[in-house]
């Protein structure tokens, strides 16, 4: 038997290198290149309650600054840099209830853009600590006014100091839904091999649900895209917005949504606990609300005897919400 | 009379007022009298069992009542009570 030509058989070294290549973590030039391409995890224990329907969740907490907001922050800052909006000596200024702030802080640090954030004074303590760690400046708005108070204060500051601040306004910036249109939706499409039947997630700025839904509908108009909102103005789903009582974000586009689910704080919080205990996913309350919404949809399908593949978003990790401990009772807001 | 500071999402019950004056010797009494003056507000603050909801914080001055005596926390005439959502929305 003739020996195979040497060049068709990989050498031992080549074989080892090839086997390593698949397993080796990627090497990148900047932390910002690690944003996106997050894994999709199946919620096997939760979906047992809706037989015939698969529940999958996109692990946005795997983004480098820990939340789904990394995507929007990167696209917003990239667009500002490309447009020359942030001139030397200027700072990026935006309002946030937390995760966008942390994302801006990370992307800003990595790309050399100084960041100022306006946050309501009652954002959770870890958010203040994390953003501060990246070296950003924080300006607090009234804890009585919520995220809309922060929006109003950021607008005022931007108007008063046009030479100091560039105000991209995540609530009006089309790069916010644009990030999800360009990345989140195609990732989900690919990860489910186009089998997704429903996409459901909560509204904060509405960037995730609007951008992802817009693209998914283009890929397959039959996909049902459903938003989740807190069921009352007075709620405890951090990061989520009750639009009937809020400043409606300019990027909010109801035409790309098929339905809205109204979620109670207790149902969202209880599902966060279940995710940690039953799936090993220790995630924040907005993620809990998202999965509670996905399960609600799943149950409706199962009751009708329909099959489906529902995808939702795990926005961030639960440790971002640790409450102040007893001995920290004199914590300063 | 003690002053109660009302957060934006609850101002629909107080005709838009940021502050209301409500009598009461402790936080529980204040909430009862607040409900009498502004019907519907209490269930946004407390659950069916009358406990302050998990996502609502009530402060007497600068002190969170969870670290005092909860609804039994005494309130003086010149005290300011703040009802603050535990989180800041979207």
Summarize the structure.
The complex is a heterodimer of chains A (333) and B (90). With 333 residues, chain A is α/β, with parallel strands linked by helices.
Description:
The complex is a heterodimer of chains A (333) and B (90). By secondary structure, chain A is of the alpha/beta class. Chain A has nine helices and ten strands. Chain A has two domains: 31-66 and 176-321, Rossmann fold (3-Layer(aba) Sandwich); 69-173, Rossmann fold. Chain A has helices at 12-23, 69-82, 99-111, 125-133, 146-160, 175-191, 207-219, 265-279, 285-303, and strands at residues 40-42, 53-59, 91-95, 115-120, 137-141, 165-166, 198-202, 224-230, 259-263, 308-314. In chain A, the strands form two sheets. Chain A has a six-stranded mixed β-sheet. In chain A, strands 5-4-3-6 form a four-stranded parallel β-sheet, sandwiched between helices. Chain B has 90 residues and is α+β, with helices and mostly antiparallel strands. Chain B has one domain (3-85): Ubiquitin-like (UB roll) (Roll). Helices cover 17% and strands 21% of the residues of chain B. Chain B has helices at residues 27-37, 42-45; strands at residues 3-5, 19-21, 56-60, 63-64, 80-85. A five-stranded mixed β-sheet of chain B has the order 2-1-5-3-4, with no helix packed on it. The mean pLDDT of chain B is 92. Chain A binds chain B through residues 97-98, 119-120, 122-124, 143-150, 203-205, 232-242, 245-246, 265-266, 269, 285, 326, 329, and chain B through 5-10, 12, 18, 44-45, 53-57, 63-64, 67, 82, 84-90.
């Amino acid at each position: 038997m003739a020996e195979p030509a040497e060049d068709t058989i990989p050498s031992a070294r080549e074989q080892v290198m090839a086997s390593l290549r698949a397993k080796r973590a990627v090497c990148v030039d900047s932390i910002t290149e690690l944003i996106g391409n997050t894994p999709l995890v199946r919620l096997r224990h939760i979906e047992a309650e809706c037989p015939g329907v698969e529940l999958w969740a996109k692990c946005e907490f795997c983004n480098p600054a820990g939340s789904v907001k990394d995507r929007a922050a990167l696209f917003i800052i990239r667009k500002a840099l490309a447009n020359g909006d942030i001139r030397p000596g200027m700072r990026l200024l935006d309002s946030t209830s937390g995760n966008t702030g942390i994302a801006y802080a990370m992307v800003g640090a990595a790309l050399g853009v100084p960041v100022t954030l306006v946050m309501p004074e009652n954002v959770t303590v870890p958010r203040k600590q994390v953003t501060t760690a990246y070296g950003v400046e924080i300006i607090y708005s009234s804890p009585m006014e919520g995220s809309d108070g922060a929006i109003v204060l950021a607008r005022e500051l931007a108007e008063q100091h046009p030479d100091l601040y560039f105000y991209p306004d995540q609530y009006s910036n089309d790069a916010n839904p644009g990030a999800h249109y360009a990345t989140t939706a195609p990732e989900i499409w690919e990860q489910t091999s186009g089998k997704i039947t429903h996409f459901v997630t909560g509204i904060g700025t509405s960037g995730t649900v609007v951008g992802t839904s817009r693209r998914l509908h283009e890929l397959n108009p039959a996909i049902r895209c459903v938003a989740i909102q807190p069921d009352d103005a007075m709620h405890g789903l951090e990061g989520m917005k009750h639009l009937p009582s809020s400043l409606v974000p300019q990027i909010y586009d109801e035409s790309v949504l098929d339905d809205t689910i109204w979620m109670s704080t207790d149902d969202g919080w209880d599902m966060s606990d279940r995710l940690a205990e039953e799936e090993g996913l220790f995630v924040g309350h907005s993620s809990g609300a998202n999965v509670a919404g996905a399960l609600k949809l799943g149950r409706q399908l199962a009751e009708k005897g329909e099959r489906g593949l529902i995808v939702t978003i795990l926005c961030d990790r639960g440790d971002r919400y640790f409450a102040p401990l007893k001995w920290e009772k004199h914590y300063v807001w | 009379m003690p002053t109660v500071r009302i957060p934006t999402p609850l101002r629909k019950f107080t005709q838009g007022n940021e502050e209301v004056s409500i009598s009461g010797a402790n936080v529980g009494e204040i909430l009862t009298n607040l409900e009498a003056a502004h019907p519907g507000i209490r269930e946004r603050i407390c659950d069916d069992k009358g406990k302050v909801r998990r996502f609502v914080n009530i402060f007497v001055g600068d002190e969170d009542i969870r670290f005092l005596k909860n609804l039994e926390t005494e309130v003086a005439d010149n005290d300011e009570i703040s009802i603050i959502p535990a989180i800041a929305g979207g």
